[in-house]
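Renewal narrative, Specific Aim 1. Our central claim is that a sequence can be written position by position from structural information alone. The example that follows is taken directly from our test logs and has not been curated for this report. It begins with the structure tokens describing the chain, in the order in which they were read.
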């Protein structure tokens, strides 16, 4: 199977170039970089413009880093602790009961593409302890931890443990015609 990303329509190259690596250079992001990422994310559209998101972060090595590093699960901790920052993306279930997760997901997409434009890489993780996130961040009940995001400068795959090295390649996608239909949706969708 080919691992080169190509497509037939003239989409912006950022969509093909962005990927979620596991190898990160172990250096801290700056506060300015972190703010730029979240600034892009907050311009995402949301239902009734509720903006039901919040970003809690730790920069590598800062006063919060140790506590944040306990939030990802064991499998993700193997690689994500080299990242330059860890961000916990929260959605506000109270302000947008029906669309909080959908809107937070869009904000994550914006953040990921801004990171790519800045020469940084991101990797979202659903594998984390929500209980630990609640404890570390002292979360009120209406804020739902959606995912943890590792951000940083990409490192050579050789820096990874052997079993993770092979996975450091761009993933492919289902064909366009499998996810797109004119009119009624096929039963296989
Ligand atoms: C909400 C969400 C949760 C994810 N959880 C994990 C995770 O726990 N561990 C992991 O290694 N990758 C995780 N990923 C990364 C996906 O596996 C990855 O985005 C997908 O395979 C597509 O690859 P790409 O981002 O490189 O294009 C997650 C991605 C998203 C958006």
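The sequence written for that structure reads:
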């Amino acid at each position: 199977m080919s691992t080169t990303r190509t497509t037939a329509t003239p989409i912006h190259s950022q969509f093909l170039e962005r990927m979620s690596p596991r190898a990160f250079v172990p250096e801290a992001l700056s506060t300015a970089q972190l703010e730029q990422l979240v600034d892009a994310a907050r311009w995402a559209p949301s239902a009734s413009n509720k903006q039901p998101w919040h970003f809690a972060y730790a920069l590598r090595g800062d006063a919060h880093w140790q506590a944040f590093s306990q939030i990802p699960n064991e499998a993700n901790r193997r690689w994500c602790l080299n990242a330059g920052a860890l961000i916990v993306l929260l959605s506000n279930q109270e302000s947008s009961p029906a669309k909080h997760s959908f809107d937070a997901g869009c904000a994550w997409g914006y953040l990921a593409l801004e990171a790519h434009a800045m020469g940084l890489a991101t990797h979202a993780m659903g594998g984390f302890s929500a209980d630990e996130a609640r404890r570390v961040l002292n979360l009120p009940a209406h804020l739902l931890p959606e995912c943890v995001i590792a951000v940083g400068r990409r490192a050579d795959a050789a820096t990874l443990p052997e079993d993770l090295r092979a996975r450091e390649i761009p993933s492919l996608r289902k064909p366009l015609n499998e996810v797109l239909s004119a009119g009624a949706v096929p039963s296989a969708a």
